[in-house]
């Protein structure tokens, strides 16, 4: 019992301690006080101001003094608004407004922060997301809560986009609270030694928490060791944090090898990073910032039997107060705690437990270095050269991930030539071009695209030129000639009209960071460049190094190797057994059944039983008979011979290992329809399987280490061989042939067929005391046949047919595959919705299959087109994959189509509903269905604080509308979308059956009205309408063939969308007469596949849970096959309970109730819009969904790339 309690205690002690950690222990739980409103005007500064009344001091939230906010002199992406909070504070939220009573507001912005007003860091909302959503008008307030919060004294708001009809205009607020901070500074030659209390009982758990800011890329942060060389060490190595756990005892077994855990990257950026180390016996939790590594060291608790002292900042040499064994840490530690003890506080009070060595101080100096980020290949920085001097001399430091790019270009005076310094293949090359001579080249350094800072010194004078990269020097002799330095040096790239030798090159410009630039003997101040007082530039971010590690965390799966450039990353899948952008898709079939389906003969094959899951492929033999048998051999002996032994003693205990791992075997067995393993037993005068007291004398062990005394296909504990079950043993008194004890060789063939226990991992046999007994047995291979996921099918015969499945959970990576056949022209195979995200696979046209989704960057589509129709009643195979790199779709053997994802966009697919497909609905005369958009846009902490204006802030500049209908009545209102501002959209059938569309996007103007005289569409046939608006351009497509484009004149923004109505509209305030006439008539007939953007009203009607967005009046019922259903105007055959009203009655026209409250026996359906049978091939779930999520991985940005090229 004690051991169980101790185990439970260990688990509890290792629970996450983020809220316990003393790093933020001094901060109150309610940390959301306004921090900027009480600051004086002098605390606000900016890049420029339009006038004195537009200055930064007028930028406080909700203030109307001055011109009502900050507006810069010019509106471009190099402007910024800055706040000085006076001291470091914890910042938890920000809020923005536009300029009061103006047309000036910012629609998106970046947020940066700094401790000292230099070396700014850009706040990342999550993963690769940088930008913040701003305002859509001048006066509403948009809040954004920061997850996680940060600590800083200075904040900067950098506008990215603004109202195109106005200027940049901002009013801001910052929320947070005071931040407790104890800091200690180490100069690279100092350390703190903390002597622990030598208590009789060691602490159950050791917890070390701290924050650090590194001035250099290498150094010891902490060290603790024991008597025998065992130690723990935390060391910064090339900007990564490495935790060493070493036993130091050569006598310990080799399994207790030194442990090295590495976390973090680019940690030498002179910004704060948090560390938490938890040790309990041999269990280790190691956390750096948001990334945690859990580790269980082998051995007993003495493995971490350490001394009662721990050093911070370095490892002192015993007996020498200023000597250190390894490179010490240069930088600052903040809020340093050991088991809840504030070590810095003890040091400041000169407590006896603390020994300070070297220059230790208790304030953190602010870095004065000003880095410059070259954001794109078109970036450049033009600086004046040391004109007129007889030499060229430039030094700087750079860091980048790119293997190639121009670093520096300059022309010499009097036409005497030019030089170019560039990266190629990770090496630095210098080329000097002089008239009449071949180019002179020098190469130095290697692997310079590793993200680390590298120092460069370049000089050319008279008879030689040389380049020094870090410690690598290269010299090139020159013909003695005067080197006359030019007027301008170009860093990173060239002007568009430059024509100098070497400036125009396919290598492109430099992307990365530069700092510490000197030209001649003069240091360059980039702040003067930023202020316009020195040189010129394009597409730079000054006073910040914006490098990020796109391989941390790595999105490469299955051991794929991640490599990166400035803009993206790639995965090398060689040797992993997987393929695709992120090494997600297996190269191998899931089973021998799948190999047989491909027409492969018997032979050795690799199979991947869990498909794209975490388990790797393994080698099996596929025996293709009438069934496909998977044969997995074991590595045990071919035959085991047993001879007599004393009673009760084991004669044989043989273990059997397999080429596949336990997880791989379990997956293969679970996937199979049947598995078995045969045991062939030959015996002469054998013992009985039980002793006289009934104790089993033989047993076998299954894959989960459980012991079984039953043999063959018998039930557990029946203790019978197969012949005993079949009643044909040679001696009817016994249940196994070998139990007869005859002086002759007999045999048993035992078939173990309980697949949940297979394969056999051990067989144990003891003896009952027969001295001359003898036996031999042979264990055969594991045999499995069938594939439970392969031969699964479902028939969807009506639109209201359904299957019930949970939500799709492929946040970062997921793939879907299935077979289908159909005879109809369009329909949705599968769809899953989130609050804003969705995923859908559909047959959009007879020759088109489309995979569409949205992860927050806007809808993305991948379409495969076929020269022949897919609705030919033949089987077609679909495979779709979506990951952080993009999406792919393949149908049959047609070429795979792919769409890349934006480099800095949302990556997580967030879904919360169940899988279902659009249904059709019959609308009786006078009935209606209203979808309320205000429920769709829910109030959140990141929305406007003005509840009354929340929904009115929803402005649409584009929307896509689709619907299918069948009716014979005119006039008819097919769809009506209203707004709070009396703007609307109506889609109607006129008296003559023509399609009419009206947009009114300005309540002070008449609506734009368009008539599409395609034909009389009230002909009782099914028609499809698709409307796609991009600002003022509206594209209308009817029946997937006829298209027409029109231009709106009433406006480009649909403001404050309120509701979507299908059927009769009771109030259409401000609508034109034709719309009102159609609204009064309503719609009688069948509607299907209705969508407005992401909203799907008919699906919302059958959603099993969620807000009551839909209200119904009158008789509306699901309908089978809108394409061939009941004639319009006649009652539809109801396949589900009515959507409104009680049983056997229709609600009156003025009654309405939320559809979610209606009676529904069929919850969360996948209905068939098309008649389809789906074969599930190589997939884990019943509808071909196969999902693999990287458990170690951890949402938002506006896409900066055209949706036509990226998604």
TrEMBL record:
GO cellular component terms attached to this protein's record: membrane
Bilayer disposition of the protein: Single-pass type I membrane protein
Pfam hit, one: EGF
Swiss-Prot/TrEMBL GO biological process terms: cell adhesion
Bilayer-crossing regions: 1164-1185
Chief location of this protein within or outside the cell: membrane
Record domain Laminin G: where: 183-364, 370-545, 934-1122
EGF-like domain location: 547-584
Keywords for the protein's UniProt record, in alphabetical order: Cell adhesion, Disulfide bond, EGF-like domain, Glycoprotein, Membrane, Repeat, Signal, Transmembrane, Transmembrane helix
Entry's localization field: Membrane
Domain F5/8 type C: 31-177
Region (Disordered): 1134-1155
Keyword Ligase on entry: no
Family affiliation: Belongs to the neurexin family.
UniProt protein name: Contactin associated protein family member 3
Organism, scientific name: Homo sapiens (Human)
């Amino acid at each position: 019992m004690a051991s169980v309690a101790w185990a439970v205690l260990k688990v509890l002690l290792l629970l996450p301690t983020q809220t316990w950690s003393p790093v933020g222990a001094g901060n109150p739980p309610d940390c959301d006080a306004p921090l900027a409103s009480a600051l004086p005007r002098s605390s606000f500064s900016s890049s420029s101001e339009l006038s004195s009344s537009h200055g930064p001091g007028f930028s406080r939230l909700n203030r109307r003094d001055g011109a009502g906010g900050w507006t810069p002199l010019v509106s471009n992406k190099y402007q910024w608004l800055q706040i000085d909070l006076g001291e470091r504070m914890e910042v938890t939220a920000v809020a923005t407004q536009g300029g009061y009573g103006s047309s000036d507001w910012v629609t998106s912005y970046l947020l940066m922060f700094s401790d000292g007003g230099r070396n700014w860091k850009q706040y990342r909302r999550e993963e690769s997301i940088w930008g913040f959503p701003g305002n859509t008008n001048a006066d509403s307030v948009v809040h954004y809560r920061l997850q996680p919060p940060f600590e800083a004294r200075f904040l900067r708001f950098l506008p990215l986009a603004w109202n195109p009809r106005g200027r940049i205009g901002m009013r801001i607020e910052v929320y947070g609270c005071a931040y407790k901070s104890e800091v200690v500074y180490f100069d690279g030659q100092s350390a703190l030694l903390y002597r622990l209390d030598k208590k009789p009982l060691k602490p159950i758990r050791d917890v070390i928490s701290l924050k650090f800011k590194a001035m250099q890329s290498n150094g010891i942060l902490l060290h603790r060791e024991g008597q025998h060389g065992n130690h723990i060490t935390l060391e910064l190595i090339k900007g990564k944090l490495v935790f060493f756990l070493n036993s130091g005892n050569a006598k310990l077994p080799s399994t207790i090898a030194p442990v090295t855990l590495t976390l973090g990257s680019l940690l030498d950026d002179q910004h704060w990073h948090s560390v938490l180390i938890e040790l309990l016996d041999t269990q280790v939790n190691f956390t750096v910032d948001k990334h945690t590594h859990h580790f269980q060291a082998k051995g007993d608790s003495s493995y971490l039997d350490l001394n009662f002292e721990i050093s911070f900042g370095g490892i002192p040499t015993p007996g020498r107060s200023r000597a250190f064994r390894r490179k010490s840490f240069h930088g600052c530690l903040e809020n340093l705690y050991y088991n809840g003890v504030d070590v810095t506080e003890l040091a400041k009070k000169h407590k006896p437990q603390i020994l300070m060595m070297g220059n230790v101080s208790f304030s953190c100096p602010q870095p004065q270095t000003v880095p410059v980020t070259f954001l794109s290949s078109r970036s450049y920085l033009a600086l004046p050269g040391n004109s007129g001097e007889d030499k060229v001399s430039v030094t700087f430091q750079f860091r980048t991930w790119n293997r190639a790019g121009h670093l520096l270009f300059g022309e010499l005076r009097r036409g005497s030539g030019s030089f170019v310094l560039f990266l190629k293949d990770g090496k630095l090359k210098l080329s000097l071009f002089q008239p009449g001579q071949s180019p002179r080249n020098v190469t130095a350094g290697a692997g310079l695209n590793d993200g680390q800072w590298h120092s460069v010194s370049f000089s050319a004078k008279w008879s030689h030129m040389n380049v020094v990269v870090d410690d690598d020097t290269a010299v090139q002799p020159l013909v003695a000639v005067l080197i006359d330095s030019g007027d301008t040096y170009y860093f990173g790239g060239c002007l568009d009209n430059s024509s100098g030798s070497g400036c125009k090159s396919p290598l492109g410009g430099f992307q990365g960071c530069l700092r510490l630039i000197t030209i001649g003997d003069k240091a360059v101040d980039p702040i003067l460049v930023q202020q316009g007082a020195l040189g010129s530039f394009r597409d730079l971010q000054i006073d910040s190094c914006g490098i990020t590690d796109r391989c941390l965390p790595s999105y490469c799966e299955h051991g794929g190797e991640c490599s990166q450039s400035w803009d993206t990353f790639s995965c090398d899948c060689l040797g992993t057994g997987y393929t695709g952008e992120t090494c997600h898709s297996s190269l191998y079939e899931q089973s021998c059944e799948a190999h047989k389906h491909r027409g492969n003969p018997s032979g050795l094959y690799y199979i991947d039983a869990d498909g794209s899951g975490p388990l790797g492929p393994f080698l099996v033999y596929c025996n293709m008979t009438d069934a496909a048998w998977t044969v997995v051999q074991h590595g045990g002996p071919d035959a085991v011979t047993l001879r007599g032994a004393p009673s009760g003693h084991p004669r044989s205990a043989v273990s059997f290992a397999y080429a596949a791992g336990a997880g791989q075997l379990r997956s293969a067995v679970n996937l199979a329809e049947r598995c078995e393993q045969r045991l062939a037993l030959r015996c002469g005068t054998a013992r009985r399987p039980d002793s006289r007291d009934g104790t089993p004398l033989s047993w076998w062990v299954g894959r989960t280490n459980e012991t079984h005394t039953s043999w063959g296909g018998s039930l557990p504990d029946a203790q019978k061989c197969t012949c005993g079950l079949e009643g044909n043993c040679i001696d009817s008194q016994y249940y196994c042939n070998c139990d007869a004890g005859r002086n002759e060789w007999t045999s048993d063939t035992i078939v173990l067929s309980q697949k949940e226990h297979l394969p056999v991992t051990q067989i144990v046999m003891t003896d009952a005391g027969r001295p001359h007994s003898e036996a031999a047995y042979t264990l055969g291979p594991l045999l499995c046949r069938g594939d439970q996921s392969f031969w699964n099918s479902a028939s969807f015969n009506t639109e209201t047919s359904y299957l019930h499945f949970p939500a799709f959970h492929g946040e970062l990576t997921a793939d879907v595959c299935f077979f289908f056949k159909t005879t109809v022209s369009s329909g949705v195979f599968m769809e899953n919705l989130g609050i804003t995200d969705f995923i859908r696979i559909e047959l959009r046209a007879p020759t088109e299959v489309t995979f569409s989704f949205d992860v927050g960057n806007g809808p993305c589509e991948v379409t495969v087109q076929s020269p022949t129709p897919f609705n030919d009643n033949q089987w077609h195979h679909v495979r779709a994959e979506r990951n952080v790199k993009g999406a792919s779709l393949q149908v049959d053997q047609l070429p795979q189509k792919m769409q890349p994802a934006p480099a800095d966009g949302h990556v997580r697919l967030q879904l919360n509903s169940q899988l279902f497909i659009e249904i059709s609905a019959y609308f009786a005369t006078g009935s209606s269905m209203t979808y309320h958009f205000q429920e769709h846009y829910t109030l959140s902490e990141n929305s406007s604080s003005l509840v009354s204006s929340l929904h009115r802030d929803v402005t649409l500049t584009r929307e896509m509308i689709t619907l299918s209908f069948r009716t014979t009545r005119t006039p008819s209102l097919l769809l009506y979308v209203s707004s709070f501002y009396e703007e609307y959209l109506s889609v109607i059938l006129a008296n003559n059956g023509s399609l009419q569309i009206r947009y009114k996007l300005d309540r002070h103007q008449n609506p734009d009205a368009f008539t599409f005289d395609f034909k009389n569409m009230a002909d009782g046939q099914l028609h499809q309408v698709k409307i796609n608006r991009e600002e003022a351009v509206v594209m209308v497509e009817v029946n997937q063939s006829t298209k027409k484009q029109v231009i709106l004149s009433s406006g480009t923004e649909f403001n404050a969308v309120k509701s979507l109505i299908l059927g009769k509209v009771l109030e259409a305030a401000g609508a034109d007469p034709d719309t009102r006439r159609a609204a009064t008539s309503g719609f009688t007939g069948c509607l299907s596949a209705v969508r407005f953007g992401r909203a799907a009203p008919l699906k919302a009607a059958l959603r099993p849970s969620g807000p009551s967005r839909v209200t119904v009046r009158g008789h509306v019922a699901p309908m089978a096959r809108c394409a061939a259903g009941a004639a319009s105007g006649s009652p539809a055959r109801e396949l589900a309970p009515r959507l409104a009203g009680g049983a056997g009655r229709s609600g009156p026209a003025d009654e309405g109730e939320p559809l979610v409250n209606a009676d529904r026996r069929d919850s969360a359906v996948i209905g068939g819009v098309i008649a389809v049978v789906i074969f599930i091939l190589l997939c884990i779930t019943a509808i071909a969904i196969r999902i693999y999520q990287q458990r170690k991985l951890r949402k938002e940005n506006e896409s900066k790339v055209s949706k036509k090229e990226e998604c």
